[in-house]
Each structure stands twice: as C-alpha cells, then as structure tokens.
Amino acid sequence: MPNDFAQRQQGAVSHRMNFWGRPAGPSTMAWDYEGMPWEIVRPDDGLPAARRLVRCGVCGKELTFTVYSVTGTRQRRVRWQALAWGGLGALVAGIVVLAFSGAIVVGVLLVIAGPILGLVSGMAASDEVGISGHGNGFPVTNAKHSVRSRKEITVGLGLPLICVLVYGLSWGYWMRSWRCWM
C-alpha cells in the first residue's frame, strides 16, 4: 500500500467508456476508462474534509468529490485495515465456535462473513486515496467516474511515464493493474 499522500499531488479523474464489460479473455471482463489530469489539493491536517468540484472532460458532468487531509486519509486507511483484521478475527471465532460449541448457525455465519469482510475491507484499505464520492473509494463498485492518484516514473532519456491504477474483473476476481503512458 503506497503512502504517497501529499498536500498537493497529481491525480486523474477517469470516465468509464463502456456500460457493459467487454470480453478480455476467458471469464474476464474489462472496462475502458478515459482519464484527465487533476491536481488533488488536500485540506490542511486537522481541518475537516473539503468538497472539490471537477468537470468530467468526457461527459461534461460536474462532479463533487470529498477530499480528505493527509492525516485524514491515513486514518481512513487504518479504519479499513482494522475492519479487515476484524474479518480475520470473525473467521477464527467462527472456526472456534464450530469446533467447541453447538452453535452451528453462528459458527457458519462467522466463517462466511469473516472472509468477505476481510477481503472487501482489505481491498478498500489498499485502494484508499483519501477521496470519496460517486462510488470512488469502495473496491466492489465499478463507478462511472473514478479518481486515482498518479505515479510519475521517468524512463529512458528522462521522459515521464504517467501511471494510473485501473481495475477489471478476471476469472471472477477483481484485478488491479497499472496503465501507463508517456
């Protein structure tokens, strides 16, 4: 999980271009996003989250995102991590209940709910960029508009390579990968 949060940082607002996922291989669906650069300006630490307006370059819709401070973003990530560990605890508790108690229904519910809570919360923790709104910031959604922080890598003769984290469904699992361009 990157901790590259800054008061000012480059990001990208992306617009999902296709409603239905297109086939990208066996049991794999992919969605295409077209992004535009956006400078993320976070509020000072200790201040409440700020609402920021951005106009989508593709559809022209005015989007309102809530941007959290650097400290607020780290706190959000810690909360998601705590829920993920809670999911692991629920799994272990369910196994203990099944092994040493007669409460089969409770044990089975804990064994099922624990991994789901842990997986979803863990993905949310790893994807936390401190910006919410329009489905952004929750891993299971396939939002029409998405905000991601950008990484800038220099290659070759000092040419910048801009990379944005993108998502797709592969073999029934959400996959993350970096799309890069010069």
General description of the model:
With 182 residues, this protein is α+β, with helices and mostly antiparallel strands. It has two helices and ten strands, in the order E-E-E-E-E-E-H-H-E-E-E-E. The chain has helices at 70-100, 104-127, and strands at 8-16, 22-25, 28-30, 33-41, 50-55, 62-67, 131-132, 145-155, 159-170, 173-181. The strands form two sheets. Strands 1, 2, 3, 4, 8, 9 and 10 form a seven-stranded antiparallel β-sheet that branches. Strands 5-6-7 form a three-stranded antiparallel β-sheet, with no helix packed on it. A hairpin with a 3-residue loop joins strand 8 and strand 9 (159-170). The longest helix has 31 residues, at 70-100. It is flat, with a radius of gyration of 19 Å. The model is unreliable at 152-157 (pLDDT under 50).
Short description:
The chain has 182 residues and is α+β, with helices and mostly antiparallel strands. The chain contains two helices and ten strands. α1 (70-100) runs antiparallel to α2.
